[in-house]
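User: Design a sequence. Structure:
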């Protein structure tokens, strides 16, 4: 765990944190715009205007070009880029994944990053792509770990931060093992590498598996960087899973391809009739003007950066208010593969429940997937805390005169089920839900109610059944001892 990372607010596995670097403190979650030392669509000195606190560039590219190398060694990385804030440098691992080899060693590139004054250095790890055979993934992971151990011995003191990339391809076992081993060695930041191919092919559900497995092997307070994740559509999801830093070349690459980024997807500028954004670029240009502008690429890059950092602020506010999971559910409905990722994320609700704050503002039910949220799981796990004796009324309607005839009055609210009416204003039972529940929320509610009845065999329950709460599990309730279902028309 890094002593330079302080968590100041949490929601789900996401958090607002402060990462201390030699060139200043970075508030997370945030995005590091990727700077190509050879070709800059937007100058690094302008990046703060968009909201950037930290940049990332490639030390291998700088090293290979003599002019850049000599200037960086003489004046320092920050002078080279004309940026006075924190800068992270990659090691050439991306080039290794693309071309199969690089012209530096791990020791050489670590030494070079120290000499040019980078804030966060990355060793030369091996980014094993998805779906390779297990043996290759394991062998390359072993090499990566040895290189990271060597790098850790080379970098000491309180200066430059050192990243420990978590590898392991698409094998959850290897990802968790990698993260656990690196935690024992001790790094300042833990990037999750070789995930770009998953995002390029819209395999967001597999990305969820990689993140969850890696997080399970780390100290929960360790800062995490998701390499190559630059599209705002998936920030909320990744942050909810515990990622703190992202890097984006998408703002420039998409602009070069005339693509216009939004938080719910990407549009080709040629197909836009209107600009659905209020950034300076979009307020000063019509869709037609943007399309025909001689500097269209630069304008698109600027828009893409504005909308990227806007989404970062939206995510931060959601963490602060305690409704990050509601934002995730909204964003994940922008694409079928993102919805698949949402469903996969909630298969890890038992893990999320351990890190999710127990108290927030209000639970908003956003659809069937909400039935699998960690708050619902926590409620089910704590049903044994309710002791019910004597007669108990379960109702879904407002209080009535009949309440006084029972020793206990319970409220029935999907997806939670039945709970004492004294808790109606307590999170998450103060939930805002739909009046006509869907099948999934009713199923979870009835399963919890059945469990509650089984935990209190001495109590006698009467359930006033509303028509909109009909479900096959009602038959099981009706067959239980000391349980009576009453329909309004037969009262």
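Assistant: Done.
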């Amino acid at each position: 765990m890094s002593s330079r990372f302080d968590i100041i607010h949490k929601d789900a596995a996401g958090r607002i944190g402060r990462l201390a670097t030699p060139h200043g403190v970075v508030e997370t979650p945030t995005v590091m715009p990727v700077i190509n030392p050879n070709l800059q669509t937007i100058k690094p000195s302008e990046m703060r205007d968009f909201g950037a606190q930290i940049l990332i560039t490639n030390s291998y590219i700088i090293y290979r070009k003599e002019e850049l190398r000599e200037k960086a060694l003489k004046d320092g990385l920050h002078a080279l880029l004309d940026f006075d804030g924190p800068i992270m440098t990659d090691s050439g691992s991306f080039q290794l994944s693309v071309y199969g080899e690089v012209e530096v060693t791990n020791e050489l590139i670590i030494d070079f990053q120290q000499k040019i004054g980078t804030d966060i250095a990355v060793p030369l790890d091996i980014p094993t792509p998805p779906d390779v055979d297990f043996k290759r993934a394991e062998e390359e992971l072993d090499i990566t770990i040895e290189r990271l151990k060597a790098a850790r011995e080379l970098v000491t003191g309180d200066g430059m931060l050192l990243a420990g990339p978590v590898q392991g391809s698409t094998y959850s076992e290897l990802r968790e093992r990698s993260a656990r081993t690196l935690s024992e060695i001790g790094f300042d930041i833990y990037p999750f590498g070789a995930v770009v191919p998953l995002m390029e092919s819209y395999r967001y559900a597999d990305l969820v598996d990689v993140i969850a497995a890696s997080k399970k092997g780390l100290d929960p307070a360790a800062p995490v960087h998701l390499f190559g994740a630059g599209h705002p559509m998936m920030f909320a999801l990744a942050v909810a899973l515990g990622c703190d830093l992202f890097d984006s070349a998408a703002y420039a690459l998409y602009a070069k391809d005339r693509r216009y980024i939004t938080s719910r997807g990407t549009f080709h500028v040629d197909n836009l009739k209107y600009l659905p954004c209020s950034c300076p670029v979009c307020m000063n240009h019509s869709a037609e003007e943007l399309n025909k502008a001689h500097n269209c690429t630069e304008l698109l890059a600027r828009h893409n950066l504005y909308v990227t950092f806007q989404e970062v602020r939206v995510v931060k506010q959601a963490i602060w208010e305690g409704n990050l999971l509601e934002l995730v559910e909204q964003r994940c409905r922008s694409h079928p593969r993102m919805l698949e990722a949402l469903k996969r994320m909630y298969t890890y609700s038992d893990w999320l429940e351990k890190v999710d704050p127990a108290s927030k503002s209000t639970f908003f039910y956003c659809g069937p997937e909400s039935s699998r949220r960690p708050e619902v799981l926590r409620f089910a796990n704590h049903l044994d805390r309710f002791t019910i004796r004597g007669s108990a009324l379960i109702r879904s309607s407002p209080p009535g005169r009949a309440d006084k005839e029972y020793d206990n009055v319970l409220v029935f609210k999907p997806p939670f089920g039945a709970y004492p009416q004294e808790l109606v204003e307590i999170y998450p039972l103060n939930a805002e839900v739909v009046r006509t529940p869907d099948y999934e929320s009713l199923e979870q509610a009835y399963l919890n109610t059945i469990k509650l009845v089984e935990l209190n065999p001495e109590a006698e329950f009467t359930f006033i059944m509303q028509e909109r709460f009909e479900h096959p599990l009602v038959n099981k309730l009706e067959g239980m001892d000391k349980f009576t279902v009453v329909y309004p028309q037969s009262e």
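The radius of gyration is 26 Å. DSSP finds 20 helices and 18 strands in the chain.
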